Amino acid sequence: MRITLVGSRHFGVTTLNMLREHSVSIARVVVADAEDRLAAAARAAGIEVVVQANPKLVVASEIAPDTDLIITAHSHARIGKDALAAATYGGIGYHPSLLPRHRGKAAVEWTIKEGDPIAGGTIYHLADRMDAGAIAAQDWCFVKKGETARDLWERALAPLGLKLLADVIDYIKVHKALPSKVQDEQFSTSAPSLS
Q1: pLDDT tens, 51-81?
Q2: With helix as H, strand as E and coil as C, how does 141-183 read?
Q3: Which domain holds residue 62?
Q4: Structural domains in the chain (count)
Q5: Which end of the chain has less Cβ packing within 10 Å, N or C?
């Protein structure tokens, strides 16, 4: 399976490392910033790096030829319809909430702010609307009393995201398709960014 990874920062690097250990071919890494740590890690591993022409949008020409799946890992860019069409199975991303709850930026912060006793993560199909595509995989965890958003991310949600991504990749390898369950809009929350 050939992957184009779109992302940034620490979660982008940990996703890159997980993919390298998971018997897939990382054809290309796409970043918004050439100096990002994901770009440096990809170059060090001998993986081609492409810098997005528009930091808010990934287009088909930035996706590696013969890509089976696009994976986003800490990317705030929209993956254009043409880019999704360039990959056999389209694209998936990880969102650190139980979608459709806490769509948008600052999902972990909103989990804490709302006092949610349970948090979770979702692998979802990339779509026109941010964080609104069909669910491919989802799991949950408890939120500890007094836990900060950063604590929750580092303790539970980042590792959960890597596990769910690996599970979905394994599913595709066996079934030659992405699992898909439509999000139930009656449970949707879209909070504004906390910044």
Answers
A1: 999 999 999 999 999 999 999 999 989 999 9
A2: EECCCCCCHHHHHHHHHHHHHHHHHHHHHHHHHHHCCCCCECC
A3: 2-178
A4: 1
A5: C
